[in-house]
Write a structure and sequence with these properties.
flat, mainly alpha, two-stranded antiparallel ribbon, single chain, 1% strand, Substrate Binding Domain Of Dnak, Chain:A, Domain 2
């Protein structure tokens, strides 16, 4: 299932097509009319048996907008009529079956079986599902070259809404019922198990007969007038145990096992305690998943490949947190080395002649201290900051050593100037002596050195 690309996302025409408020305004209707008549891709929709009803509603709305008076009752009626006509047209023209199935499934869910935090994510995803079913998105007409490209982008949007639900559902954190429970609660647990454990997907497993036996027992319990809450609680435990064993036999838990096994090779004493605790918590959460239960939403029309994609989506969701925690592990040796180096140079005084290098050291120290105090820092961040600071400090120390041996650049220039002056003086003396010798020789025919 593809996600909407950035390119196609830019083509979406956001139409203010919300459910009619208690006092809808005529301006709202005018906006809807303008948006639909300018955007709808007529050649595609004309094939639908719902197009004629939609066309009539558009004409009726057009006539109503031309009238001088617009009673509130009529505004609300036209608003709902055009919304329904367009929704029917969209539902007939594109595959909304997944969203309809999700909506029906959600209505039957017992959300009390999940933690409050994870329920919030699902509820947000369902808002998008219900909104898309009630008020389908309208797209710009002139931005599609072919019917195929139009169909593709509209269907991708529908599919993206479905995938958002699947991710939120996969992230639900199940709370197994404990002790006596009602028949309604037991039925809710059964429905959850049957959403995932489908015969066409899992009947080849050696664990299927035990699971099927547990399902039969729970069904009989639900039908029995004498079954009390204590017995219902016992049946829920037996069903969930059979379900878990089936899931572990059928599904590939290698994505989970990878982190659990990797975790066992680590020495916690060699990492910063806070980062180790985060990684340990993430791995323990994965172990909990493999040891307890999880549920996958599976459509009635789902084939083996689709079910595998759905389970892969789930594993990618639950392992993402473990991967993030793994990347944030900070070796204690790097942390302490960076901390020590920052403390050593944080009070460095400015040395004449090394001002620029001093500033570089101070910036690197500041970055290092910031990383050390940032809970979001990763091991690679700290390692990179340490290497950077070490290089900058080494460069500074070499420059300082050179300065101590040779002085500042000004000192070097002064010494060079003095050396040049001395050379010029010696050259002048030699030249003067040469001229004197030459003059004496010319006068006396001999060199007079007295």
């Amino acid at each position: 299932m593809k996600k909407i690309t950035v390119f196609f996302a830019a083509l979406l025409a956001v139409l203010s097509f919300t459910a009619a408020p208690k006092a809808a305004k005529i301006e709202n209707l005018e906006s809807i009319y303008a948006g639909l008549t300018a955007s709808i891709y007529k050649p595609y929709y004309e094939k639908s048996p719902y197009y004629e009803a939609y066309r009539k509603e558009i004409e009726a709305l057009s006539d109503f907008l031309k009238q001088p008076e617009h009673p509130q009752e009529e505004i609300d009626r036209h608003h709902e009529a055009i919304r329904m006509a367009f929704a029917n047209l969209m539902h007939d023209s594109f595959d909304y079956s997944a969203l309809f199935e999700i909506a029906e499934f959600y209505k039957k869910m017992d959300l009390s079986l999940f933690t409050e935090d994870s329920r919030r994510g699902l509820e947000k995803a369902m808002e998008a599902v219900f909104y898309e079913l009630k008020t389908p998105t309208v797209y710009q007409r002139g931005t599609f070259d072919t019917e195929l490209s139009y169909r593709s982008v509209v269907q991708e949007n529908i599919d993206s809404v479905e995938e958002s639900f699947l991710r939120a559902y996969s992230a639900l954190s199940f709370v197994p019922p404990e002790g006596p429970i009602s028949k309604d609660k037991l039925e809710a647990v059964l429905n959850l198990c049957q959403t995932t454990a489908r015969k066409d997907q899992m009947s080849q497993s050696i664990k299927w007969p035990a699971y099927e036996k547990a399902v039969t027992s729970v069904t009989a319990t639900l039908e029995s007038p004498s079954a009390d809450e204590a017995f219902c609680g016992e049946q829920a435990v037996l069903l969930l145990d059979a379900y878990r064993n089936l899931l572990l036999d059928v599904l590939d838990f290698m994505p989970v096992s990878k982190y659990v096994n990797y975790f066992a090779t680590f020495d916690p004493n060699t990492y910063v305690s806070q980062t180790w605790s985060q990684f340990a918590a993430a791995v323990f959460a994965l172990e909990d998943v493999s040891l307890r239960y999880h549920f996958f939403y599976t459509r009635e029309s789902c084939d083996a490949a689709s079910f595998r994609r759905q389970t892969d989506l789930y594993f990618s969701t639950i392992t993402a947190e473990a991967q993030e925690a793994l990347e944030q592990l900070i070796p204690l040796s790097d942390f302490e080395a960076l901390h020590s180096l920052c403390n050593r140079y944080r009070g460095l005084k400015v040395t004449v002649g090394l001002e620029l290098k001093h500033n570089k050291v101070m910036l690197a120290v500041s970055r290092g201290l910031s990383l050390l105090s940032d809970p979001e820092s990763t091991g690679s961040d700290v390692a990179a900051a340490l290497a950077d600071l070490q290089e900058i400090v080494s460069e500074y120390e070499r420059a300082l050593e050179f300065l101590n041996e040779n002085g500042t650049a000004t000192d070097l220039q002064n010494r060079k100037a003095m050396q040049l002056t001395l050379v010029f003086s010696l050259v002048s003396v030699v030249l003067a002596l040469g001229f004197a010798v030459s003059a004496s020789y010319k006068k006396n025919g001999r060199i007079d050195l007295n």
